[in-house]
Design goal:
The chain has 507 residues and is mainly β. The structure holds 2-acetamido-2-deoxy-beta-D-glucopyranose (6 copies). It comes from Clupea harengus.
């Protein structure tokens, strides 16, 4: 049970013993070259046998012979302190685990040894070597140009566990689209500027140990996240660029500019220098790979394409990325149908000319209060049977951006005349010869345009005029009687109650 202290004597194979007893002295490893991942552990599977009348006294692994045939127990080596664990027993299992693998562990050769109760019954196995699995990427063809098919292969010097899943990275970002793959080869059918950059691979579960990266098409690249933004007027946006360049270069200047504003023979104008963005644009000038462009208080005129450019300390060290697109929009209220009549179904929609995130929550306002209506469903406000009380100015906003409401849109509900009233001026009891005017008023949308005046005599009514007002310049007693009017617009008609005109004679 006790750990071997100090040197022990190594001897070579005991042919005599094994010959006599017919039981072989033997150590068997499942592999004499085991493969591990740096920082992880590796198990060396091992079994041993010996003449059956003997008893095992000591088992251990060693890497060094001390003097002659003597060796030190590996677990006592300071370099392996706490990193080795004997998984075997004193019968026939001699497996070893080496933990927290280090690069230097690959320089050693590992051997299992055991001692029996017979002072001469000692045996050592053969040596086991340890390799660390390093991944590497090969590129074919090595010098690709635009449009070529390029194949990248993730290779390793030692074999991997069953069916590993690979992860590919471009400029340290896991590849999703347009080249997703979990195999050890990555094929780009027609390579373009968009694909340029540094590629590396890793095995899933060991993402912390990716391969070194290789440069495809060009080591000069700019990657943006996101590539386009649809933002509300008044809000703020951020674009991030990630640039790569040959390792011996150092970035000395990095800036953004508006696409298409590049005077020939000169450098493009730094966005910070653009007057119309003054005080609203900000980006770090740190000489790193990451640069965030921030534009605040967006106005519609900010809609533009922007490019990122950087310059290094070496001759010819200049590169501009593709472009990112910013669309600044205002919300708009769309009313459908455009002309609404009482009792119609009307739908108001909060629209945008580019698509905002799917989960935006809309808020509706009616002159000028937020409405918590049962009719709202996200970006639409549905009124199944519109009434005059629904008339008003509507606007919408996104939750979290309540300050950036859409312009108001008036919902005007049309209805036929109501509250039609016939009135007499200046008096319903004029003296013959007076001037008298009858006025027909009503509440209607659009205002009544068709008027008919009637005079009642008994059960009969006869039309006496067809304008809103009828006038008698000099009224006579025969014109006494009951008058009423009917007002109409394109939606309907409504009749007033009758007014009595009584003309008195002047004597
Ligand atoms: C840019 O924005 C950051 C964070 O809002 C701020 O700390 C910094 O002062 C700004 N720089 C310039 C030049 O405006
Ligand atoms: C740079 O950006 C990438 C993603 O675009 C991110 O993973 C990384 O942490 C960033 N580095 C720094 C220093 O901000
Ligand atoms: C969308 O919803 C998710 C979860 O509900 C949230 O994390 C995310 O920020 C939302 N996106 C926007 C643009 O509001
Ligand atoms: C919404 O409907 C519920 C019941 O269906 C009702 O109690 C509530 O008053 C309604 N709210 C509005 C704003 O119409
Ligand atoms: C006219 O409108 C009023 C409501 O203002 C209504 O009570 C009345 O029945 C209508 N009359 C006719 C004849 O349509
Ligand atoms: C009828 O008279 C009223 C009241 O005097 C006036 O407001 C209106 O403009 C007149 N209508 C027409 C068509 O002249």
């Amino acid at each position: 049970m006790s750990v071997t202290k100090g040197p022990v004597v190594l001897t070579t194979v005991f042919c005599i013993l094994s010959g006599v007893l017919g039981q072989e002295w033997k150590v068997t490893y499942s592999s004499t070259n085991v493969c591990g991942v740096e920082g992880s552990f590796v198990d060396i599977s091992c079994t041993y046998s010996y003449p059956s009348h003997l008893e095992i006294k000591e088992t251990f692994w060693f890497i060094k012979k001390v003097t002659g045939d003597e060796a030190d127990d590996l677990s006592l080596d300071s370099k392996y302190q706490g990193r080795v664990e004997y998984l075997g027993d004193k019968v026939n299992d001699c497996s070893l685990r080496i933990k927290n693998l280090k690069d230097s562990d690959t320089a050693e050769k590992y051997t299992f040894r055991f001692l029996t109760n017979d002072p001469k019954g000692k045996f050592s196995g053969s040596e086991v070597t340890l390799s660390l699995r390093h991944l590497a990427v090969t590129v074919s063809p090595e010098k690709a140009s635009d449009g070529n098919q390029v194949t990248l292969t993730c290779i390793t010097i030692c074999s991997l566990s069953n069916n590993p899943t690979y992860i590919w990275y471009r400029n340290s970002q896991p590849l999703t689209n347009p080249h997703p793959t979990s195999s050890n080869t990555l094929s780009i059918t027609s390579v373009s500027k968009e694909d340029a950059g540094y590629y590396s691979c890793a095995v899933r579960g060991h993402e912390g140990h990716p391969s070194l990266s290789v440069c495809v098409l060009s080591c000069w690249s700019v990657t943006y996240t996101p590539k386009s933004i649809c933002a509300l007027k008044g809000s703020s946006v951020e674009f991030q660029s990630y640039c790569t360049y040959p390792a011996d270069h150092t970035v000395t200047k990095a800036f953004w500019f508006i696409k298409g504003t590049w005077p020939s023979g000169q450098e493009p104008k730094d966005l910070i220098q653009e007057e119309r963005y003054h005080g609203r644009v900000n980006y770090s000038e740190e000489k790193t790979n990451n640069h965030t462009l921030r534009i605040t208080d967006l106005i519609t005129g900010d809609s533009n394409s922007f490019q990122f450019r950087f310059i290094t300390d070496k001759v010819g060290g200049k590169f501009s990325g593709g472009d990112v697109e910013l669309s600044v929009i205002e919300l708009q209220v769309l009313v459908d149908p455009a002309i609404v009549t009482e009792r119609n179904t009307v739908t108001l929609t909060c629209i945008t000319s580019c698509s905002l995130s799917n989960n935006a929550t809309y808020i509706w306002y009616k002159n000028p209060h937020a409405i918590g209506s049962n009719h709202t469903a996200g970006k639409t406000l549905n009124i199944p049977s519109v009434g005059i009380e629904d008339t008003g100015s509507y606007s919408c906003a996104l939750q979290g951006h309540e300050d950036h409401r859409s312009p108001e849109r008036t919902l005007s509900v049309r209805y036929g005349p109501r509250n039609t009233l016939a009135s007499v001026h200046p008096s319903a009891e004029p003296v013959a010869g007076d001037s008298v005017t009858l006025t027909c008023s009503s509440d209607a949308n659009p205002p009544a345009q068709i008027y008919t005046w009637y005079k009642k005599s008994g059960d009969q009514s006869s039309p006496v005029g067809s304008s809103q007002n009828i006038s008698f310049a000099s009224i006579s007693s025969e014109q006494s009687g009951l008058y009423y009017c009917e007002a109409g617009n394109e939606i309907g008609q409504n009749r007033s109650s009758a007014v009595q005109i009584t003309v008195t004679c002047k004597f």
